[in-house]
Design a protein that fits this description.
- The protein is an alpha/beta fold.
- It folds into two domains: 2-114, Aminopeptidase (3-Layer(aba) Sandwich); 124-316, Rossmann fold, CATH 3.40.50.620.
- The chain has helices at residues 7-18, 64-78, 93-98, 120-130, 150-160, 180-191, 223-243, 256-269, 288-296, 300-303, 309-316, and strands at residues 2-3, 29-35, 38-46, 49-55, 85-88, 102-106, 111-114, 138-143, 165-170, 197-201, 245-251, 273-276, 280-281, 284-285.
- β2 and β3 form a beta hairpin.
Length: 322
């Protein structure tokens, strides 16, 4: 098995994956096997996620898949990457299960699996214990907060009035303009007066590179509905029963991708989803994208009407590492 380094190698992999309806994007590592000059199998790794796994149908049944995955696992272990996740076609899931991976969720289009030593049930139950979550009347919202605005604050405050306790899951994936660490702190600082609100990480299982990679591309692509369904099903299968969540609160959306995500959430979670109208500044909806535009212009006077003081001070003093 060869590691793709040259651009022409990656182009050949891209062409091969097109035959399987898979789109090749920049990966940390991409491997391939050839028969002569013809690619007959490929697999890629992004971070700790195994994806873009495909084998030429003419060579299936020769244990080529098992050999490829075993070599990838050995390659990653040498780099001390032990906890792995898998994003693959459902027809491949038994290959990974035979190698000890546990299935998280499967749809008709996608299977998500992970290493057995740290499964989702353990992770979420550890969160439940760490944050002392045992309330009977529990609501939640999942937010990126890039950065935290009056719009986010409004949704959180209104939802918190409807439950004994509200959980705010801040998207942990570090693929936004502002870092996860900064976004989390801004939500914590901006809601510390709301005594029944608990701010916590979203984990690897909500709006992450595993469950919803196209969310961070902000493109209206075909994969959105497929990935949104995986994300929603994980929430229904694990988050609702483990935490005892009664409702999940969303804001109305104008962004096409996020709007699609909300539609899928509503279809999958049904009456567990409550959609609230977004807060406006005059006639304009307060959004994080608008805040980022004004921030780029250093228009702090206008930002006073869109973000809490804690966010405003953060923006005034913000310096991004480059």
């Amino acid at each position: 098995m060869k590691l793709a380094i040259l651009s022409q190698e990656k182009e050949k992999i891209k062409t091969f994956l097109n035959n399987f309806g898979l789109k090749f994007q920049d990966q940390d590592y991409s491997f391939y096997i050839e028969d002569g000059a013809k690619i007959i199998g490929t697999v890629s790794v992004k971070g700790n996620i195994i994806q873009n796994f495909a084998v030429d149908p003419a060579y299936q049944g020769e244990n080529l898949a098992g050999v490829m995955i075993s070599e990838v696992l050995s390659f990653l272990q040498k780099r001390k990457i032990y906890y792995l996740q898998v994003y693959t076609n459902p027809k491949n899931k038994e290959i990974f299960r035979s190698l000890g991976f546990l299935e998280i969720i499967s749809t008709e289009a996608v299977s998500l699996l992970e290493s057995a030593h740290r499964p989702i049930l353990r992770v979420l139950n550890e969160y439940k214990k760490e944050y002392n979550i045992d309330d009977k009347d529990l609501g939640c919202t999942v937010m990126n907060c890039n950065p935290f605005t009056f719009g986010h604050r409004y949704l959180i405050e209104e939802a918190s009035k409807l439950h004994k306790r509200l959980l705010v899951f801040v998207v942990e994936e570090d693929s936004s303009f502002f870092s996860y660490r900064d976004r989390l702190r801004l939500v914590q600082d901006g809601t510390k007066d709301l005594v029944n609100v608990t701010v916590l990480p979203s984990s690897d299982y909500l709006v992450s590179s595993l469950t919803f990679p196209t969310y961070f591309l902000k493109e209206d692509v075909d994969e959105v509905v497929i990935q949104a369904k995986c994300d929603a099903l994980i929430f229904r299968k694990y988050f609702l029963p483990i935490f005892g969540i009664k409702e999940r609160y969303l804001g109305t959306e104008t962004d096409p991708l996020t709007n699609k995500y909300n539609q899928v959430l509503k279809e999958v979670l049904e009456d567990k989803v409550v959609i609230m109208d977004r807060l406006k500044n005059g006639s304009e909806i307060i959004s994080a994208s608008l805040v980022r535009k004004l921030f780029a212009l250093k228009d702090f006077e206008s930002l006073k009407n869109l973000v809490p003081k804690t966010t405003l001070e953060f923006l005034k003093n913000y310096e991004r590492d480059s």
